[in-house]
Amino acid sequence: MAGEQILVVEDNERNMKLFRDVLRATGYRTLEASTAGQALMLATQHRPALVLMDIRLPDMSGADALNALRMDERTADIPVLAVTAQAMKGDRARFIEAGFDGYLSKPVDIDEFLATVEQHCRKRGQ
Amino acid sequence: MAAPPLLHHRLIWKYTTVVVLLVAAAIVSVGVTELYFSYEDSKLAVTGVEADKASSAAVAIDQFIREIVDDLDSVAGSPIDPDGSVRLQEFGGLLQRQKVFSELIYLDANGRDCVHAYSFEIDKIQSRTCASDRTSSPEFVRTKAEKRYFGDVAFDDRDARPHMTVAVIEHAPGEGVIVADVDLGTVRDAIARARIGAAGYAYAVNSRGELIAHPDKNLVLAHTNLASLPQVQGALTGAATVRSDVVTSGRDLAGNEVLSAFQRVDPPGWWVFVEEPLSVAFAPIESAILRTALLLVVFLLVAVVTSVLLARNLVRPIESIQVAAAKIGSGALDQRIDISSRDELGALAEEFNRMAARLQASYVGLEQQVQARTQELGSALAELDEKSRELEAASHHKSEFLADMSHELRTPLNAISGFSQVLRKQLLGEINEKQAEYLDDILASARHLLSLIDDVLDLAKVEAGHIELEVTPFSLRGALERGVVIVRERATREGVRISLSSDPGVDTMIGDERRITQVVFNLLSNAVKFAPAGSTVDIAVAPLDGQVRISVSDSGPGIAPADQERIFEEFQQAAAGKEQREGTGLGLALSRRLVELHGGHIWVDSELGKGSTFAFTLPMQQM
Question: Could A106 and B410 be called an inter-chain contact, meaning their C-beta atoms sit closer than 8 Å?
Answer without folding.
Answer: yes
